[in-house]
Amino acid sequence: MNIFQKFLKSLYSPMYIGRFRFQGIGKTIGYVFFLMLITSIPVSVLFTNTIFSTANKVENALSEEIPDFQLQNGQLHSEQKEPQIYEHENETIVFDASGEITREDIEQEENTTALLREEVVIAEDGTIQTFRYDQAGNIQLSKDDILTFADTLSGLFPILIPVVLLLLYLFSTGLKFIGIFALTLFGLLIRKAAPIRLTYRQIWIICAYTVTLPTVISALIDVLPFQLPFAFTLYWAIAFFMLYNVYKKLPKPKNAAVSE
Questions:
Q1: From which residue to which does the signal peptide run (predicted)?
Q2: What are residue 145's phi and psi, to 5 degrees?
Q3: Would you give the end-to-end CA distance of the chain in angstroms?
Q4: Is the dihedral of CA 94, 97, 101, 105 positive or negative?
Q5: Angle between the 200-210 and 143-189 helix axes, to the nearest 10 degrees?
Q6: Strand partners, 88
Q7: Are residues 39 and 83 in the same domain?
Q8: pTM of the prediction?
Q9: Structural domain for 121, as ranges
């Protein structure tokens, strides 16, 4: 059975997961890396599209809509004294060097990026992120400087994005091994539910395949346009349920023949 077949069987069959307990540790570790590679594809595609889309929107807004400005002494300066609001598809861009609009005003909005007098405020899907200009030190930048930097950064995306995705993949895979270890501890606690004796090695291998279904579901949840509450709890509930069913599907030992 190749690794793709193991992946498919692990999605729905506790019986097959139980059979994998005789597999080597090396192959199981390789399977975990394969699982994380497969499940990272949707998030990687979404991440890449978001980066390119956001970069294009920012460059277009800076070059075509936002008036000339300068960042000096931690403040935004512009000849435009009135707040400017630009609607772009489902997003809103606010430019205000006057100080009339505050962060509290932006917190009530959705999908809004605001360049305010002393900070940048981003409101997206109920999450607020802020960055004060003085956090970057006593810098002096103009609109043209930022456009030049943005253009240079966009040219580096083909190099930077794969590096970031690789680091995220390795980090998430490391977390997955920690999760498998935690599930293994649970497997040891309920070891008596299995009809046969299981070693720690066999339980770890079973757990590595047991997390297939909850990992796939979590990967799909991550690309939803909204946040699903209790996603963490759902992951572990599915993992515990699958592991318990794997134990129940293990073959019962044959009764020894009774000598007459």
A1: none
A2: -60, -45
A3: 43
A4: positive
A5: 130
A6: 91
A7: no
A8: 0.78
A9: 74-137
Alpha helices (runs of H) in the chain, residue ranges in sequence order: 3-12, 14-19, 25-60, 103-106, 143-189, 200-210, 212-222, 231-249
Tokens representing 233?
């709890």
Q: State how many domains the chain has.
A: 2
Residue 145 lies in a domain: no
Within a domain: 66: no
**Alpha carbon distance 182, 171 (integer Å):** 17
Report residue 205 as tokens.
Answer: 């291998």
Report yes or no: 116 and 127 within 8 Å, Cβ to Cβ. no
Domain end: 91, 107, 137, which one?
Answer: 137
Q: State the Cα–Cα distance between residues 52 and 56, nearest whole angstrom.
A: 6
Residue 89 dihedral angles phi and psi, to the nearest 5°: 55, -115
User: Which tokens sit at 58?
Assistant: 């920012």
What are 45-101's pLDDT values in tens digits? 988 988 888 788 777 777 777 888 888 888 888 888 788 888 776 778 888 888 888
119-124 and 112-115 strand pairing: antiparallel
Same domain, 100 and 182: no
d(CA 257, CA 194): 22
